[in-house]
Design goal:
The chain has 369 residues and is mainly beta. 4% of the residues lie in helices and 41% in strands. β11 and β12 form a beta hairpin.
Length: 369
Amino acid sequence: MITWLSLISTLNAEESPFTIKSEGMILNVEKVIDGLGVPWGMTFLSSNELLITERSGSVFLYNIEASKKITIENPPKVLHDGQGGLLDVAVSPDYKKNGWIYFTYVKEDVGEGVTVLARAKLKKNKFIEWSDLLLSKSRTNTSYHFGSRIAFDNNGHVFFGIGDRGVRPNAQNLMNHAGSILRLNLDGSIPKDNPFIKNKSSLPEIWSYGHRNPQGLSYDFNNKCLWEIEHGPRGGDEINRIEPTVNYGWPDISYGKEYWGPFAVGEGTHRDDIAQPVKVYIPSIAPGSLMIYSGDAFPDWNGNLFSGALKLRHINRIVLNNEGKAIKEERLLKSLNERIRALVQSPQGWIYFSTDSGKIYRILPENKK
């Protein structure tokens, strides 16, 4: 049955391929694949192989050149409920040597959902050596605010974020993992220099806290810093530059309003012991991902942050100055009218993005095919 909403979406959608403009550049946008569920995470295994997670729990390997999709066997058993399910996927920085692929997903624990960091290897279209590295202490009876994106630095660490799990005080409670960014060694052990490791009133995996629902995480290798984007409530989405031990405020301060009325959340927007965001979105764009561009295909975009927007349905490009301050933004692909979920940079420097309607597109220079 065709509803008015689906008809409007169809009329507003661009036909692939098509072109867009960005500050004098003409860019090609091509549909790579459709007919998926909700493709939540993507990572490149090679220049031609894209590994895709669906929130429902399936994993696919897509050969771009051959347009061939292969279902991967032996994925984890996920709790697919509300915002939960199989979430992010990312290859180890030494993937070509060790073959490790990292995942975040939601697992049932005593009848409730928790965010898990795991890793596995891929052999003949089947996962082997699956290992849950951290079953986080984030269990609640809600079905939302699980996080959770993955990022690596160049010093043997993996970061991932967890939302407050619908229980606001969790984000200020260092005795649970909810509302935090966590840092582990690549084997899942706790780094000896983690900031709270000697603090008996906090969990040693925590790197930063006071986060509502971080759904974007990206490491800037040039400037050696970690960037995060998170959902605010009604307004107040934030981009933060993440530093160890720092409190990012939720729910004590926020730029957002309560869902039930035009009232501020917490004490206001500032407090001396709480970090300010680099950028705030009012109204909310509902960010689904974060990527810092570092390729050769679009040299003018190097060092820019990109986020997929779920509510306002575009790709948000943020320009940073040398001090890491947001000085400009651009909203791309609004006419596509799609909830944009995941972003990943290909080995060629092209930008691939997924939509909640089950499609994956790519952006490439005008003269490339």
